[in-house]
Amino acid sequence: MNGLIESADVRERLTALTRNTGGDGSDLKIRTMVLAELKKTMTAARDETRRRLMEDGRGLVCAQRLSHLQDELIRIIYDFAYFHVYRIENPSAAERMSVVAVGGYGRGTLAPGSDVDLLFVLPYKQTAWGEQVVEYILYMLWDLGLKVGHATRTIDECIRLGRSDMTIRTAVLEARYIWGDEALAAELVERFDEEVVKNTSSEFIAAKLKERDQRHKRQGTSRYLVEPNIKEGKGGLRDLNTLFWIAKYHYRVRSQSELVKRGVLSRAEYNRMVKSEDFLWAVRCHLHFLTGRPEERLSFDVQREIAIRLGYTQHPGMRDVERFMKHYFLVAKDIGDLTRILCAALEDQHVKEPEGNGLTRFVRRFRFGRTPGPAKPVDGAPGFLVENNRLNIASETVFEDDPANLLRAFQIADKNGYYLHPQMTKVIRRSLKLVDAKLRSDAEANRLFLSILTSRHNPEKTLRKMNEAGVLGRFVPDFGKVVAMMQFNMYHHYTVDEHLIRSIGVLAEIERGESGEDHPLSTDLILTLQNRRVLYVAMFLHDIAKGRPEDHSMAGARIARKLCPRFGLSDAETDTVAWLIEHHLDMSTIAQSRDLSDERTITDFAGIVQSLERLKLLLILTVADIRAVGPGVFNGWKGQLLRTLYYETEPHLTGGHSKLSHRQAIERAKTELMDRLDHWPEAARATYAERHYPHYWLRVSADRRLAHAELIRKADLASDRLAFEVRPHAFEAVTELTVLAPDHPRLLSVIAGACFATGANIVDAHIDTTTDGFALDTIFISRELPDDDDELRRGNRVTDLIAKALTGEARLPETTSKKGALKGRMKAFKVSAEVLVNNTLSDDYTVLEVSGLDRPGLLFDLTRAISTLNLNIGSAHISTFGEKVVDVFYVTDLTGQKISNIGRQEIIRDRLEAAVDGEIDLSAAAPVARKITLHAG
């Protein structure tokens, strides 16, 4: 800490300030000058600490420097109060005090924004002098801008409260003398150890583990969340603290290094603990300095800057921020390993005691809720024992004798529902060198692995245990490359390895019939598969090539062709797995961004799939993949789109699509509708049958055709030129808005503007035009309210604004600036605007695919830009993938033709790219507030 703060010089300067007032430091003017001097000293020292952190990157040392600075400031303030403000010549026995750091500060570490936790220890009672000194110190610290947690107690009070309050007990456990009467602090530590800590470790461990579990539940149970809380999250600093609290309390040690002497940790494990702590402290200190506040969440908007400060650089296939976050998640994984090692050491030391002690009873009761029984051999698995439903090894050499036992242990645990004994996990971790090329090529080892992967029990849980133990990444090295790998985007909630393992869990849920409400079709289809194991293998490998410079789907297929024969799959099975991986994104992309009523979409997709069995496999894999991305990513609307694509494609693969010609299909659709409209006059039915163009009858479902007919009939009878219908769909999690209005190129733009203004998020839009000049637009917005009646009222508010905008009674927002619209985490991302113009995806339309950084009002700007280009929109499909949006428009020119002119295509690209960037040019469009004439033609 040399050179950080010169305490003697500061004390001399403060003493000099009092000389003109006869040494009376209580004068308000003197106090103001003292405070200014301390602020200057503190600011300079913190600036120096920040500079040294940027220079040496030593996080733990930075935290210790800040703690040292705080110690010195408290000592200086205490001395000034003692000698210049409340000086007493002959203090009584009660006029003594010790200033003690507790909590995190007691460990001698502080982050830039940390609270300063102080305990003012008194001998046996409070005095007026003591109150004055404590108050002076606290107010001085508060005026310095510090957040101070404090308590003033006698030693007896500390002991009494420590026994009854676990938070106070934990704080005092970290007590460290700062200044004042040192003997008081020493007495507190000695009595606390004898009167509180001794023989109470089981109680303390139970409380700390319960507290940890509750904290994990609040923060998110996975340590692989892509925006982790570095202090409170799983695998964060608080977990390290809990680890040391338990060890310190139980083994009654004062430092982490003593755990090596006690045999709790090996030297390598201790070094891993120190490195993990140093890394997390570096991240935390940088985060506090960067944000200027005690921010603990490593959010997207700061991750890249932290990565740069820590010196990470870009590598092929991985950005600097992704390399930094991978390191972070590996450290979080190490902390999990250290926790398991400590548990193993605690049990190993005490389980052999004949009567057992509090810790042993606690561990067994906490985990199993019953008295331990004798260990028994596992049938058919020599070398393994089971005790109280926990699998353990019979000897330390079981893995050396047969390395395949490293796989067999997990297979036995999965098959029988056993927990893994911490001692066995510890030995597995130390035996990882046995997982070599020879074991990877061993037929029995691969059989065991495939049995785990395709298990009908709980493959997700078992694979996660294998991953945490390090076995999975070594047995499948390509999987090891994606362990702790983070993708820097808002779409994926977990690291790649966690996503793959979760996707296996979702697949198992579907197979067990536990996901029927989310996607009933996949639940039904999985029971009809000819070969379920190709699905599980493809699921496990589908993202295994992430982080490589090439397309991960193609690279993943190549990896599958290498791994599948090793796992014992046949050539045909290998081909199917490779095909599924190569095309694992196709069904999701087509369902969300293509017009599923366009015959070309379906025939092209059927050409990719080629067989009904592959269609089933791809649907189930797609559902599980999306659901494993993160909470809320899969919804009813996406499920509906996937089901529609499946049902539209299925006849093409079974020959059913050729039974009726287009003309026959149109006539059948008309006849079906006329039959359902038998309550209409015959003339009205005949007239209505001619109000729609042929493609309407082919792409609109029977129920929607009936609803449209009734809406239009009602409007005709009332002579209304505007009509609306709102229909909530709870299962699909969308609300359907149907708009009948005179056709106009800007109609969809007005609808999008009204949705933007009311906060409604459009997920899909279908535009139909009648032969008599009306537009029949169907808009799907994301559902927000759980109750149908509430959602109906919300939908009516949207349609009311649409009506007012169309009649000129309300103004819609002006164009939105991309810079102004981006907020919070979105600012961290850069997604280049890209516009693709494609005439091959549809027989009747030019398809515009617009991608870029999502922002409020983007669809509004895009539709207005399209209207300035004099294009008619046939349908619009909106897909959002985290921060990236992909909007697809099926368009024609005003004569109903595709856009074939190359020059005009370039103009479209330029104009829409500008709109994505918030630079929309409305010079060719009518003002937004101008009403659309409400008459046909």
TrEMBL record:
DNA-binding keyword on record: no
Pfam family, one: NTP_transf_2
Keywords carried by this UniProt record: Hydrolase, Magnesium, Multifunctional enzyme, Nucleotidyltransferase, Repeat, Transferase
Record's catalysed reaction(s): [protein-PII]-L-tyrosine + UTP = [protein-PII]-uridylyl-L-tyrosine + diphosphate; [protein-PII]-uridylyl-L-tyrosine + H2O = [protein-PII]-L-tyrosine + UMP + H(+)
Example GO BP: regulation of nitrogen utilization
NCBIfam families named among the record's database cross-references: PRK05092.1, UTase_glnD
Family, similarity comment: Belongs to the GlnD family.
Role according to the record: Modifies, by uridylylation and deuridylylation, the PII regulatory proteins (GlnB and homologs), in response to the nitrogen status of the cell that GlnD senses through the glutamine level. Under low glutamine levels, catalyzes the conversion of the PII proteins and UTP to PII-UMP and PPi, while under higher glutamine levels, GlnD hydrolyzes PII-UMP to PII and UMP (deuridylylation). Thus, controls uridylylation state and activity of the PII proteins, and plays an important role in the regulation of nitrogen metabolism.
PANTHER family referenced in this protein's UniProt entry, alphabetically: BIFUNCTIONAL URIDYLYLTRANSFERASE/URIDYLYL-REMOVING ENZYME, BIFUNCTIONAL URIDYLYLTRANSFERASE_URIDYLYL-REMOVING ENZYME
Protein name: Bifunctional uridylyltransferase/uridylyl-removing enzyme
Species the sequence originates in: Roseibium aquae
Gene: glnD
